[in-house]
Amino acid sequence: MALRADDLIDRRRLRRKLTFWRVAAIAILALGLVAIASWFYGDEFSGATVDHIAKVRIEGTITEDDELIKRLESIRKSDKVKGVILAIDSPGGTTVGGETIYEEVRKLAADKPVVAEVGTLAASAGYMIASAADHIVAHKSSIVGSIGVLIQYPDVSGMMDKLGIKLEEVKSSPLKAAPSPFKPTNDDERAMVRKLILDSYDWFVGIVAERRKMTHEQALALADGSIFTGRQGVANGLIDGVGGETEAIDWLATKGVDAKLKVVEWKNTEKRGGYLFSRTMLRTITSALGLPDYSGDVMHELGADRLFLDGLVSVWHP
Length: 318
Prior knowledge:
Blueprint: H1 5-40, E1 52-59, H2 66-77, E2 81-90, H3 95-111, E3 114-123, H4 125-131, E4 135-138, E5 143-145, H5 157-163, H6 187-211, H7 216-222, E6 227-229, H8 230-235, E7 241-242, H9 245-254, E8 263-265, H10 269-272, H11 279-288, H12 295-301, H13 311-316
Parallel strand pairs: 1-2, 1-8, 2-3, 3-4, 3-5, 4-7
Antiparallel strand pairs: 5-6
Helix pairs in contact: 1-11, 2-3, 3-4, 6-7, 11-12
């Protein structure tokens, strides 16, 4: 018997509803599996449940980084971390940023063996942090050094003169708000800045001398701002050996760390939003739904990881 048009329409509606709920059920099941996996196999995501070697990347410009400090502290307190590799690739940064991370690495090294593995470069504050480790390895063509302190400021007074702009100011004392980009510095201002630089510089040289077991004079001779290759760094005592992760693990083995332990990278979970809204989670869900592997990246780019963000954050940071 032929079906009526109304019956066909009803069947199609029912089929669409069933398809929707099937997909929803699979998605919920996938989320449940992800939650269970992250609970029982947390080492894949945070490295916290089995004995391992922790790896921390310190890259880019060094600034004050509360998240990194907390991460290093968590590594120090974790009984499952038997050794630490600092993978450093940085041109330097702020003195306070370098100092705070340096101090935290020293606390970490007091409890666990720490080795620094230099990538392309570890210069200035990047080298300061590397020197906090118990051992430093770098590739032959890596760049290390640039020991020194720098303050730079622009002088736009010439441009202001051309544009007919004048600056008037009332100050409590001659050195207040100096140096200023709106006028050339005088001798007193330059002398003040130089005292500031030399104090931080002397502190930096002292760190190098202490950590690299040099005399102050030996460290001072290398602290003229020069940069060195990895091979030159070994010859000058700035690093301990040439190599990469393999050599770093070999050194950890000399400190009683099992070289067969898995190396687990402790990542910035605040930056990537945690596992729940990461690309890995999205790939897991799309795979469970039978979608291609790249669908997780597509969903991530479309903003699936922002569904539960505060509205203003979503607007201001699209």
